Amino acid sequence: MCILLSIASMAPAADNRTTADFAVIASSDVPMSNLSMADLRKLFLGDRQFWTPKLRVSLLVRAPVARERIIVVWTICKMSEAQFGQYWIGKVMRAESTSSPQLFSSNQQALNLVSNTPGAIAIVNATQVPSGTKVLAVEGKLPHEPGYRLEIAE
Prior knowledge:
With 154 residues, this protein is of the alpha/beta class. The chain has a single domain (31-153), classed as D-Maltodextrin-Binding Protein, domain 2. The chain contains five helices and nine strands; from the N terminus they run H-E-E-H-E-E-E-H-H-E-H-E-E-E. It has helices spanning 2-10, 37-44, 67-76, 81-93, 107-116, and strands spanning 19-26, 34-35, 50-52, 55-56, 58-62, 102-104, 120-125, 134-138, 151-153. Strands 1, 2, 5, 6, 7, 8 and 9 form a seven-stranded mixed beta sheet that branches. Strands 3-4 form a two-stranded antiparallel ribbon.
C-alpha cells in the first residue's frame, strides 16, 4: 500500500489551468510595432509621455477589478492597486503629468477609444481584438505565441 501511494504521489499532476492572453493595442499612428516589458512599464507609469515630438501617448487603462487592469498594475507596473492609484495622484499633483490614464469599462470601449484617439495605447482581452486593429508585440511576441509575457492563469 505504501508503495502505491508513493508511486501515485510521484506521478505528474494534470495541469488543467488555462491562460488568457491580453493584447497591447495602439492607434494606427503609433510608430511602434514591438515593445519591451521595460517600455510598457515606462508608458503605463507615465515616464514616457511622447511617441514622437508631435504625438503624445494617450494611456487607456481598464477600470479597477478587471483582469486587463491586473495585467497593467501587477504584471507591468509591479504595484498593488493602492500603490498604482497613489502613484498617479502624486504624479499629477507634482505636475509630472497633465492627467492620469483614461479609464475604460469594456474592451469594446477601449477598441473605440484607441481607434479614435491619436497616440492611444491599451491592454485588452486578445480574443476580442478584431482584425485590422494594431496589436503591438511584447518582447517580439504576439498574443498566443509561446513565451508571450502578458497572460494570466484562469
